[in-house]
Design a protein that fits this description.
Mean pLDDT: 85
Organism: Qipengyuania mesophila
CATH topology: Arc Repressor Mutant, subunit A
InterPro entries: HTH_HxlR, WH-like_DNA-bd_sf, WH_DNA-bd_sf
Order of helices and strands: EEHHEHHEEH
Strand order of the largest sheet: 3-5-4
Largest sheet: 3 strands, antiparallel
Radius of gyration: 20 Å
Distance between the termini: 45 Å
Number of domains: 1
CATH superfamily: Winged helix-like DNA-binding domain superfamily/Winged helix DNA-binding domain
Shape: globular
Keywords: DNA-binding, Transcription, Transcription regulation
Number of strands: 5
Low-confidence stretches: 8-16
Helix content: 55-70%
Number of helices: 5
Strand content: 5-15%
Structural class: alpha+beta
Protein name: Helix-turn-helix transcriptional regulator
């Protein structure tokens, strides 16, 4: 991948200060793949499920109780998506009724630290974001 400066979008000012972030130019299929992954891991319910599974495996109803507001259907869809993406494993223990446990895979565990750091950033900056929104909304009236 080649590193190159990106042109400013309309209304965006480029800063010459070093932010420590390297922008990389990617081809379109790679960007689409990254967008798909970010959509999965950035989804509100996916983040909550991943964080609920951080310490140990959970059964479906345990997850449902630990994640307020999630419906059975949404939890099912979220778990299936996370399993499809290799972030969550599903283990069925034959019994009556069958026992199904969900746990993070190694890939899923590697996501916990970045998600927690982003959550901590949000908590630390919520006041600034709310203030900026109030200023913006006031200018729009």
């Amino acid at each position: 991948m080649e590193t190159a400066p990106r042109p400013a979008q309309e209304g965006t000012l480029l800063s010459d200060r070093n932010t420590g972030v390297t922008l990389e130019v990617h081809d379109a299929p790679q960007c689409t793949a990254v967008n798909d992954i970010l959509a999965r891991v950035g989804d509100k319910w996916s983040v909550r499920v991943v964080m609920a599974l951080t310490d140990d495996s959970r059964r479906f109803n345990q997850l449902r109780r630990e994640i307020p507001g999630i419906s059975q259907r949404m939890l099912t869809r979220t778990l299936r998506g996370l399993e499809r993406d290799g972030l969550v494993s599903r283990a069925v223990t034959p019994s009556v009724p069958p026992r199904v446990d969900y746990a993070l895979t190694a890939l899923g565990k590697s996501l916990c630290d970045p998600v927690a750091r982003l959550g901590n950033w949000a908590i630390a900056n919520i006041g600034k974001v709310e203030a900026a929104r109030a200023v913006y909304d006031g200018e729009q009236d």
